[in-house]
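Lines hold sequence, tokenised fold; shown next:
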Amino acid sequence: MKLITEEIESVEILTETVNGKKSLYITGPFLQAETVNRNGRLYPYNIMEREVKRYTQKYVNEGRAVGELCHPLTPSINLDRVAIKIVSLVPEGKNFIGKAKILESTPMGKIAKSLLDEGVRLGVSSRGVGSLRQNPKGYNEVCEDFMLATAADIVHDPSAPDAYVSSVMENAEWIYDAVRDEWIMEQTKRKINTLVDQKILEEYKLSIFNEFLNSL
């Protein structure tokens, strides 16, 4: 399956005060269905609804739904780059309205807050993994195997395409590791297996060398 990203510009900034402490949020339509987007893709509503329910139950309700600052190159979450915590994701028509808290205590959250404070316009980008099929009308339709990885990362100028990132994301094949609950690039998995074999060989050679030293 391939990594698929979609970007949304129309997000709003909210400030909420609880017990005298102010928190910064972004909110807006994080996900859209039954509409051909600017990437020429369409998400059937039943597929998007199913994935939003799964994502909400497994991640949002468990306090595990987070997003990064800028485009990552993988479906997996890099905890050192987390900037937001997604606190809600609800349907509204064919869209799904999200709300995410800026994590001001993380390095990337601090950067995101500083940018927003200075009036920099930011958007959000969803990440998912799945297959695409060509529709007779000329657009790509997302297939049943689609899995939502995160409902929102924070991105700058989401209307501007990044050719390199798109190339990496669209062409790579990803495999889901259910035990580790993470995505692994197929090519990387083969490389990891090779590296494991090499490590075993190196450890064996090192043990022989140590035995030789001890015999002196």
Q: What stands out?
A: The first strand starts at residue 2 and ends at 8. The first helix runs from residue 45 to 60. DSSP finds four helices and 13 strands in the chain.
